[in-house]
Design a protein that fits this description.
FAD/NAD(P)-binding domain; six-stranded mixed β-sheet
Length: about 450
Amino acid sequence: MSTINPIHVIGGGLAGTEATWQIAQAGVPVVLHEMRPHRQSPAHHSEHVAELVCSNSFGAQATDRASGLLHEELRQLGSVVIAKADQHQVPAGGALAVDRALFSRDLTETLEQHPLIELRRDEVSQIPPAGIVVLTTGPLTSPALSQDLQRFTGQAYMSFFDAASPIVVGDSIDQSVAFMASRYDRGEAAYLNCPMTKAQYLHFWTALCQAEQAELKDFERETAKFFEACLPIEEMARRGEDTMRYGPLKPVGLFDARLGDFKDPANKAKKPYAVVQLRQEDKGGQLWNMVGFQTNLRWGEQKRVFRLIPGLEQAEFVRMGVMHRNTFVNSPELLHPTLQFKIRPTLLAAGQLVGTEGYTAASAGGWLAGTNAARLALGKAPLALPVTTMLGALVDFISTAEPKHFQPMPPNFGILPPLPIKVRNKRERYGQYRDRGLSDLQTWCHNHQIAAGTSAWVTSA
């Protein structure tokens, strides 16, 4: 019988399931707290852990795709979630999709049968004050625990009906059209600006008003009234032809040095009728956020309509705009790249709660948080992965992004460090990202004495 105090994992989603498994595989006892079925969430339908509440797909399988690369990294690291996804895979073209009922039932039984795991069906309303704890409660964290987390952080805790703007790869923006400038030249030029003529603006406005919106779930529709402070761009457009021009697309205070001074009568006709701004999203300037373009349009509609904007005709989107009930913490202010809270290193968090988006990202965060929780219990130093890996880059992003504008992020190649030599062909570039990442992961595993396909607890480092 182990003399190590059990680690408590709160939340039985994908992140909590993965974290629990990694802790137990390390030889450390663990209690997984899941409030279902005693208290159901508005999105779940069963009592099983790791229930997939939306799609049954983990994303593209090919390793030259961001999700596929993260799948492969997790296979190398001994992920139980990805192992079960592979086992219960169903045909889905190039995606890793699963039989969701068999998948979650198998994971539940697997955890229940492990001698070091206790699956406790109870609601946790407060963060345990002592011991090692992993928070994996996801975007539907209960109100009581949300309030306690707000008290713990002492910050404006993010729990609201949320809309996020799309994010575009910088290399896909036509910078012969877009220009760098900050409004009224305040500080260093920090925005890419896409100017529009009156004809271009009216064409875009008409398409935006007519575009098809995504359906909201019943529980999300109930909370949509809180959304006025972050109005979707299509709703703003429907309020009038000029509403956007007096809002995020206002064409004032911006100077395109290539065109000369707009105050010069000869240049007056060159002045934009409207301007779409993109704000730098990452340290390297590889990702750009469409300012004010929070939206509930269907993803296909977003691509069609937003590519009508001059300079974005070939835009490559790494995150589409979304509108949904969401709960997440301001990770750049609160977390280390090890997923430990700065103000309490024995408290860790993972999954959508920390601002990673998607099933695979939640599982990956669970792997890291569970691994580091186990290492803390065993008296070992916590680990951070190389930023050239998809998992390492994703965690680095959520822990170092600009806190003021922080929004959840899915796995994507735009968050990886640039290649030493620029590669124009996208497929070839992604292949080189993959090869570099998997090679660096192999080296990292070797340096930490982690055998491929096993848990990180075996290391003596």
